[in-house]
Amino acid sequence: MPVDLLMRADFLIPLGPAGARDRRIADGYVLARGRTLLEAGAWTADVADRLIPRVLTGAVDVIGGASPDGTPARLPGILMPALVKAHGHDHESPIIGVARDEPLADWLDHAVNLFTGFMGEQREELERAFGRSPNLVTYRKARLDDLAYGITSSMVHHCNHNKYHIEEIFEANREAGTRMIVAAGSQDRHYDDRILDTPEEALARLDEANERFGDGDMFQVIPGPDQFFSNGPDLLRALKDWADRNGTLVHIHSSEEPRTTAWFRETYGMTPVAYGESIGFLDERTILAHQVNCTGEDLEIIRRTKARVVHNPLANTILGSGMPPVIDMLEKGIPVAISTDGSGSADNQNIINAARLASQFQKALHQNARLLTAQDVLEMVTCVPAAMLGMHVGELTPGRDADFILVDTRAPNLTPTRLDNCVENLIWAANGNEVRYVVGAGRVLVDDYRFTTLDAEEIKNQVQDLSERFAKYRRTAREIQKTGARSNGQEAP
Ligand SMILES: [Zn+2]
Questions:
Q1: How far does the centroid of ligand 1 lie from the alpha carbon of residue 462, in Å?
Q2: In a 3-state reduction of DSSP, which class is residue 483?
C-alpha cells in the first residue's frame, strides 16, 4: 500500500472547481496519493475519524508532523495550488542586475548577448571549472528560483543560443522535480548569422528533442520561435505545422516594444499580430508573450483567432517597454496569464510580485480600484496559466496533479491574516517568498524552506562564480551592437 501525503493548514484556497474559484476554507487539508490529489476540503470530525487511524498506522505521511494521537499539525499558513509560470527564460538566471536602467535593445547587447558570447568563448574553461555544462549551471539556478517562489510548473522559452541546449534544461528539470514545457527557439533573420535556421534544421531539432526528451508528462518540447521579427513566414508556417501535427502549443514573443511594430508596418504594411494571422500562425494553441504594443485591430484578431496572451509586468516596466491593454483583453474574453519573464529582465521570479504589479498598474491607469482584484490576479498565476498550458495543476480539486504550497503567515508582514483577508494578503501584503513547503507531482520539493531535490549551496556558489567571471569578461569585452536591426527593430528578451 503506498503512503499518502497529507497537509493541514489554517487556510485553504483551492481555486477550484470552476464556478467556485473564490472559496476560502478555514482549517483545510489536502490528501495526495502518488502524484494525484485525492481530497481537498475542511478538516472536520468525520475527516479526522477517517484519516487519523491511517496516520497512526503510517499509511498517511503528514507534512509538518502529527501529535502522538495522530492528529495532523495545523500549519500556520495558506495552503494553495503551486504557482504556474507561463513565460520565462531559465538561461537568464545569472544576469540579474546587469545593464539596468537601459532600454530593451541596449540591455540585450549589454546583458543577454554579452553573456551568451562569454558562455561561448569560455565554454571549455567553464566546463572544467564547474564539472558540467555552464548552461546547466544557469538552468539549475533557475529551478531553485522557481521553487523558492512556489512555482512547480513553467513554460521556458528556450530562445537564442539555448535552443542547442535542450538536454541540459531537461536534466535541470528532472533533477528539480518540476514540470516544464520547453519552447525551443528558432530564427532565420535579423540575428547572429551563426545560429540562423532553415525550416528543415528547426524541425529536425524539434523532432530530435521530442524523441529524446519529450515524455508528455513532466517535460514537453514545443516550437518557440524567438519572435515574429526574427522568423520569416516559411519558417513560422513550418513550425506551426509541426505543432499541429504533434498536437502541441506554439509560443512566441509578440509586439514587445514599438520599434519592431514600426518595422512590420514599413515592411508588411501590418502589425506583427496581423502578420501572424496572415500566415495562419494564430489559433487557440498559440501563446503570445507580452503583446504590449497592441492596437484595437490586434485585439480583434487575437479574440477572433482565440490566441492567448502572457503578460510580464516586471520586465515590461523595468525595460520601459510599456504595458499591454490587459483590461481591454479581458473584456474581449482573451485569456491572459501573468508571468515573470526571465530573471535578466525581471530580476527575480517573484510571480506574486508580478501579479501585484499587474493589478496595481491597471488600477492606477484606469483610476479604478475595482479592476483586477486579488482573486483575479491570483487566478492569473494559477488556474488560468494551467489551462493555457494544458497542465492538470493550478487548482486543488480531486484528480488533479498534487502540486501545492504553504505560504507561511507567521511573518510580521502577514500578521494579521484571517479567512476574510487571506487572498488579499497574498497579493498585497506578502513578499512572495514566504513559501515554506512546496509539493510538486506529489513529491515534497521544499520542506520547511529546505530544498530537497537541489543542492542549493552548490548551485548558488557556482552561479556566483559564473557571474564573477562574467563581470571580469565584461570589463574587456568588445561592445556588441548587433542585436537584430537596431535602427529598425529589436530582438526581444
Ligand atoms: Zn521573454
A1: 24
A2: coil
| Interatomic CA distance for residues 236 and 188, integer angstroms | 10
> Which residues are within 8 A (CB) of 431 and not within 5 positions of it... i.e. 6 or more apart?
350, 353, 411, 413
Q: Looking at the DSSP assignment, which residues form a beta bridge with residue 119?
A: none
Please give the backbone phi and psi of residue 243, each rounded to the nearest 5 degrees, phi first: -60, -45
Q: 432 — phi, psi (to 5°)? A: 100, -15
Longest CA–CA span in the chain (Å) reads 74
Q: Give residue for cell 487548482.
A: 395
Q: 118 φ, ψ to 5°?
A: -60, -45
Q: What is the pLDDT of residues 468-489, one digit of tens each?
A: 999 999 998 877 665 544 443 4
Task: Please list, in sequence order, all residues whose beta carbon lies within 8 angstroms of the beta carbon of residue 270, skipping any fewer than 6 positions away.
Answer: 264, 278
Domains and CATH numbers, the chain: 4-81+404-440 (2.30.40.10), 83-389 (3.20.20.140)
Q: Can you give the pTM of this predicted structure?
A: 0.96
Cα→Cα distances 354→103, 271, 279, 346, Å: 19, 27, 33, 9
In this predicted model, what pLDDT tens digit does every residue of 404-425 receive, in sequence order?
Answer: 999 999 999 999 999 999 999 9
Question: Grid cell 511573518 — which residue?
Answer: 411
Q: How far is the CA of 158 from the centre of ligand 1 (A)?
A: 9
Q: Which amino acid is at 483?
A: T
Question: H or E stretch including 434?
Answer: none
CA of 119 to the centre of ligand 1 (A): 20
